[in-house]
């Protein structure tokens, strides 16, 4: 099937911190559970683990959607493509499904066109099926799309969960056909303390994390939760079977606190 931003598997597995043998085992559990989308990054140091886990799973390369992100240190002129080739080697593949710019260059040290043009070149060379960005604001998305011309920004990955709904940015992405990937989709396991979410979870005999993920899927987003524990990897996956009512969704919309967790001083402010 030809992939586009509309058919990226909605349930992905994040691989931040999934390092070494323990990391490979956790990623394998995810693949055995049914996750068919793995999210890594040059900065996580988990590309090799992802490659190993896919190999060991015995799944065909085409059955697993693979995303990596270009590190800040690889945005400069002439740096992006060699870094992406190294990622492909780490992952033991010839082509990424999705390559993202991990962050806009801190303090604009490298001008946006320098790395967005290299991203387009990587696509033209066949190193990645789709291109996208992460932690990009509306203004940066507009600037990047102008540079890319006909090549769509397939995806923007940013912090989004019931406590940080990032509504302006998510709605801009939706209206312009950019798929949204939620990172910190389960707010690192603290959602059971939110009464409205705890109540919905109890009513559906679900976990607060499943409720958060089901909310994100109902909104049309992709989510990439992670865990080091097999039981949680499996239970989070069951969110794909949970359907929330319109009332549940409206109630979750009201718990948004704009509570940002990932906030480097050089990162852009959210819209
Ligand atoms: N683009 C970016 O800049 C960016 C930034 C941050 C993250 N990401 C991506 O997003 C992925 C997910 O983000 P994240 O790992 O920060 O946050 P997360 O997925 O929201 O939370 C993961 C944490 O929650 C715990 N957890 C998992 N399932 C749980 C459950 N059912 N109940 C209670 N606690 C649970 C895990 O601990 P245990 O291991 O103990 O289960 C882990 O510490 C990352 O792996 C990475 O791929 C991208």
TrEMBL record:
Keyword field: NADP, Oxidoreductase
A molecular function GO annotation: methylglyoxal reductase (NADPH) (acetol producing) activity
SUPFAM superfamilies the record matches: NAD(P)-linked oxidoreductase
GO biological process: methylglyoxal catabolic process
Record keyword NADP present: yes
Stretches assigned to coiled coil: none
Transmembrane annotation, as ranges: none
Domain of life: Bacteria
InterPro entries, per the entry: AKR, Aldo/ket_reductase_CS, NAD(P)_OxRdtase_dom_sf, NADP_OxRdtase_dom
Gene3D superfamilies xref list: NADP-dependent oxidoreductase domain
Positions of the NADP-dependent oxidoreductase domain: 23-256
Binding sites annotated in the UniProt record for substrate: 102
Family label: Belongs to the aldo/keto reductase family.
Name assigned to this protein: 2,5-diketo-D-gluconate reductase B
Native source organism of the sequence: Devosia psychrophila
Lineage: Bacteria, Pseudomonadati, Pseudomonadota, Alphaproteobacteria, Hyphomicrobiales
């Amino acid at each position: 099937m030809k992939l586009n931003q509309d058919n990226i598997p909605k349930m992905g597995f994040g691989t931040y911190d999934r390092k070494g043998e323990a990391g490979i085992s956790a990623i394998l559990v995810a693949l055995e559970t049914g996750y068919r989308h793995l999210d890594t990054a040059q900065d996580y140091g988990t590309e090799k683990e992802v490659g190993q886990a896919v190999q060991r799973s015995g799944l065909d390369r085409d059955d697993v959607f693979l995303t990596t992100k270009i590190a800040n240190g690889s945005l400069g002129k002439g740096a992006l493509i060699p870094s992406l080739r190294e990622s492909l080697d780490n992952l033991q593949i010839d082509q990424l499904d999705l390559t993202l710019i991990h962050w806009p260059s801190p303090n604009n040290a490298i001008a946006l066109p320098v790395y967005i043009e290299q991203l387009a070149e990587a696509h033209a060379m066949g190193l990645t099926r789709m291109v996208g960005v992460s932690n990009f604001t509306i203004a940066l998305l507009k600037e990047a799309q102008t540079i890319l011309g006909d090549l769509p920004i397939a995806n923007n990955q940013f912090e989004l969960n019931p406590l940080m709904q990032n509504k302006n940015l998510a709605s801009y992405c939706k209206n312009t056909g950019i798929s949204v990937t939620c990172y910190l989709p389960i707010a690192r396991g603290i959602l059971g303390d939110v009464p409205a979410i705890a109540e919905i979870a109890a009513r559906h005999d679900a976990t607060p994390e499943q409720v958060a993920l089901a909310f994100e899927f109902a909104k049309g987003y992709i989510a990439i939760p992670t865990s080091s524990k097999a039981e949680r990897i499996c239970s989070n996956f069951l969110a794909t079977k949970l359907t929330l009512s319109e009332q549940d969704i409206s109630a979750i919309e009201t718990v948004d606190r704009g509570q940002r967790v990932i906030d480097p001083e050089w990162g852009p402010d959210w819209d």
